[in-house]
Design a protein that fits this description.
single chain, 123 residues, mainly alpha, 5 helices, globular
């Protein structure tokens, strides 16, 4: 059942990302990825609200089912940056500061680098 909730939630999140990005481009033009920035910020805010109010003692697990649909589904489809933010906050909450710093320090340059490598390999 969890996978079905993730699948349906991802579809909703993906549509949400598209709508926000399209509206931002229409309002402000394509010169800066304002839509993506807004999606990442709002997704990170939403996952923080989830962490603070709905699951203050939770760990990064797949239960209960409705929260799986919301976090991994809707917010995961909306922005994977929200998952990255939540996992970083779990490490900080658990006082694993070094692990949090390594995770952030590796994730951003490695992911941007991997995207660049993929792009470069195909041009």
């Amino acid at each position: 059942m969890d996978w079905l909730l993730v699948m349906l939630g991802s579809a909703l999140g993906g549509v949400g990302r598209y709508v926000v990005s399209a509206v931002m481009v229409r309002l402000f033009g394509p010169q800066f990825p304002l839509g993506t920035l807004l999606v990442n910020l709002s997704g990170a805010l939403a996952i923080g609200v989830y962490m603070g109010t709905l699951a203050p003692n939770a760990v990064a697990v797949l239960h209960p089912a409705p929260l799986v649909g919301l976090t991994f589904g809707v917010l995961g489809g909306y922005t994977t940056f929200s998952s990255f933010s939540l996992e970083t906050l779990y490490l900080i909450r658990d006082e694993r500061y070094r692990a949090a710093a390594v995770y952030v320090g590796l994730s951003i340059p490695l992911c941007v680098g991997a995207a660049g490598l993929g792009w470069y390999a195909t041009i």
